Amino acid sequence: MESEDAEDDEDKEDEAPRNKRAANRRKAGKKAKDTEDESEGDSDSKTDSEEEESMSEGELARLTEEVEEKKKLIANIRTKPWRMRRRLTVLKESQEFVDKFEGALGGKGKGRAWFAYKMMMKKKWIKFQKDFENFRTSCIPWDRKIKEVESHFGSSVASYFIFLRWMYGLNLVLFSLMFGLVVIPEVLMGLPYGSIPRKTVPRAEQPTAMDYSVLMDFNVRIGIFGYSLMVVIRTMAKNQDVGGGDDADNEFTFSWKMFTSWDYLIGNPETADNKYASVTTSFKESIVDEQENQKDENIHLRRFLRVLANFMITCILGGSGYLIFFAVSRSQEFANRDDIGWYEKNEVEIIMSLLGLVCPPLFETIAELEEYHPRIALKWQLGRIFALFLGNLYTFLFALFDEVNNKLEEEVHIKNNSVWFLKEYLANFSMYNNDSEATAPPINPADAIRGPCWETSVGLEFVKLTVSDIQVTYLTILIGDFLRAFIVRFLNYCWCWDLEAGFPSYGEFDISGNVLGLVFNQGMIWMGAFYAPGLVGINVLRLLSSMYYQCWAVMCCNVPHERVFKASKSNNFYMGLLLLILFLSLLPVVYTIMSLPPSFDCGPFSGKAKMFDVVMETIDLDLPAFIGTLFGYVANPGLIIPGVLLMVLAIYYLNSVGEAYKNATLELKKKMQMARDEEKNRRNNKKSTNQQQQDLEDLLPKRSLAPPPPPENNTEKKEEKGGRGTRVKPGAAGGVNMQKDVSLASANPNARGPVTREPAPRGPGALPGNPQERGEKGRGRGAPRQ
Amino acid sequence: MGSRASSLLREEDIEEIKKETGFSHSQITRLYSRFHSLDKGENGALSREDFQRIPELAINPLGDRIINAFFPEGEDQVNFRGFMRTLAHFRPVEDNEKNKDPDAGEPLNSRSNKLLFAFRLYDLDRDDKISRDELLQVLRMMVGVNISDEQLGSIADRTIQEADTNGDMCISFSEFIKVLEKVDVEQKMSIRFLH
């Protein structure tokens, strides 16, 4: 109604009184609504009050006026001095409007009840959604625990726990998939066929029902990988968005921290203490960042040291690989002997775990030669430990393959034996009974000669590995952290030097080691899940207990890092590692599916030449024929190769689109920066540094975006800035030398002081750091609080 | 108008408050009952002790200053009008301010007024500038004794460096606005008042 109507001027005089009426009506507010309701002559005051609750009053009043006006317009349309066409259109519009909304206001329209109902349902739906979101957020476990850890130890330690929680969720889903789709049907259907004997499928028969369950089994196992892949990639993509958005906030870091870091919703004194701790930590983090940006040193010495460090680390990696190889070949010798104790049986696993324990601290001490920024040093450390674990794992796998091959040979041997046995039995049978019909020998399947099942043994190996890994981790935390803290704390009273400040002191939380342990554990689970489905369940339990255990250990026995630094904004590094491990653990499994024959006597895939044949057979035998031919066509190389090409092209296209967006964002940022510089220059000096911009501005009408500049009483500074050339960082006002008066490198007073005591309980009315002489302006704390 | 301590809220009062602050009728009544529940002395006005009973304000390092923002210059009691006027700063910003009367000036909950409210929390001596000392006081309140005085001084200097554009070693209101330009003040400084 306020828009300019290009048509007739005569409308304006109609609009003006209409506007005034509308304004009056709005201002009168409640009174107007009352009169409206009365004038509607409706007795459904109840529905009105309901709608009042469900619609805001403003909406209701506004709609009421509009309906009134439209009605008046309809009544008076003949008297309006308009052209006919216009009258008709306006009439139609007004009638539609009245029909539609009269129902909402309790008029005698037909749409009343329906409209009220619709609005009410909509509001209810929105409320339901909000409640559901609240519920979902409150279901996220361990939030408070993690916040507590974060406020004491900083964001990098907390990121480990967040990662742990995410993994727990992933494993839970995998476990429920496995459990729901494989174990339950088997338990349900297994009994008629005998669940244990079922695993030793009688060679003669394969009931059709079983085919589907086997296929389902296979699919679920493949599906586990697919699901994991999807989830990891999706999380990476999501983190990418979040991480890329706030790059430009290194302009006002300290100002923002100063003005916006308190959380005004905190009402609990303990939480307030945590928040204090975290505010302090975040200031310290920024100080460390600043320091790092200002160091400059001898480049050549640094490079040499770095090369040396890398060389030493490569040696260590090679040494550990050889050690595992040696241990595995020894274990094969052991397998041939009979008098093996517990140690020999588990030797390989023990060695692997020990290596994983000893090498990372070694890497860390060597890495001190390199003198990187802590964040980058963390990444290097992670990379090296990754290489270590990878080497170990693959050596282990090769060893396993050796074993599997051995077992397969053995199996052939036994198969020959059993066949020979069967033939003999039949021969005897027919000899005694003169019956040439062959029946299955009445041997309980459980007693039948069973060959070694390589799948089972592989699954067993993985389970053993996982269990020993868990044990070693827990023991390390217990001994390395808890015992150490215990000793330092209590032996300190009677020791020559200060244990807390000196040699052992309290441990710091080893982020890189723990993250990689987690990632590799997951890799092992993925590999082993195909052979031992229960492994996922074990892992779920492990992650759950690990969460509580490690949270307790961190809060109880560790101190915050001496150099507190922020974790990188996105979690993508961890996710990238996880993705890599997923691929790497997929490879062996796929290899075995495709090439190794399943064992003859056990497992759901027995009897086939390759496991993959399950799918092929189902397609051939159970599904309608045309699907089989369809698959045959699809599997034609002539179709597959163009398909692959198409996918490659799609990847390339999406990649270039992503690049283009990134460039566009950069351009926009630059423009904003330039505009800001222009503003500053204009305010200070009235002369633009960019000639094109200046020409443009001379042409345009004078439009100042900023409030008029404060009265300048220091003109020298102004002129100095006017002469400055191109991009001046807004933060570096006046070109103050950053190194000059910002001495953030001064030592922290509590340099090595670990957090040994709780924040002192506060007396009434005294916040830490509050200077007591706060009598200014009569704002002292008055009467004590109740 | 300011000293009338009436314990019942009258229609004209509600209308005036509505015009001044933009709250709706039901919001005003609801806030009045909250005002009433805070007012333990039953005298129609709140004192500083009444505010300090609120736990979130009590543990806030800037709590005292926020409480002070409710009280007009030099007074010790705030009545309901004053209470609403301060709370109006925290009303969410709506896109279609239908009540916008061009003569009434900027609504109390505009971005610039919100920022002015925040600015006044730091600028204790009301000279429209945040000086280095005032920053030091705020820092001291926020981090306590865990960081040395020297480092705090450096942080304050650095903050001024970042924000100061005209070189007077103080942060003026316009510089303050620029610092918080990218912060979503409309959303962070808003309370969702129930209807």
Automatic annotation (TrEMBL), chain A:
Q: Where is the protein localized?
A: Membrane
Specify the TMC domain's residue ranges.
453-568
Q: Which InterPro entries match?
A: TMC (IPR038900), TMC_dom (IPR012496)
One GO term (biological process):
vestibular reflex
According to the UniProt record, one GO cellular component term is: plasma membrane
Record has Membrane as a keyword: yes
Keywords in alphabetical order, please: Membrane, Transmembrane, Transmembrane helix
- Which N-terminal stretch is annotated as signal sequence? none
Which superkingdom, per the lineage? Eukaryota
Mark out the compositionally biased spans (Basic residues). 19-30
The annotated regions of Acidic residues compositional bias extend over 1-14
Spans through the membrane:
172-194, 214-233, 307-328, 381-401, 524-544, 573-594, 630-654
- Single Gene Ontology MF annotation: mechanosensitive monoatomic ion channel activity
Membrane topology, as annotated:
Multi-pass membrane protein
Give residue spans, biased composition: Basic and acidic residues.
673-682, 714-723
Q: What is its main location?
A: membrane
Q: Where is this region: Disordered?
A: 1-62, 673-786
Q: Which family does it belong to?
A: Belongs to the TMC family.
Q: What is this protein called?
A: Transmembrane channel-like protein
Species this protein is from? Alosa alosa
From TrEMBL, chain B:
GO CC, sorted alphabetically, is: cytoplasm; nucleus; plasma membrane
Where would you say this protein principally sits, based on its record?
A: membrane
Q: What is this protein called?
A: EF-hand domain-containing protein
Indicate the segments forming the EF-hand domain, all copies.
26-61, 110-145, 151-186
One Pfam family cited in the UniProt record for this chain: EF-hand_7
Task: Tell me the GO molecular function terms.
Answer: calcium ion binding
> Which keywords fit this entry according to its UniProt record?
Calcium, Cell membrane, Cytoplasm, Lipoprotein, Membrane, Metal-binding, Myristate, Nucleus, Phosphoprotein, Protein transport, Repeat, Transport
**Keyword Membrane in annotation:** yes
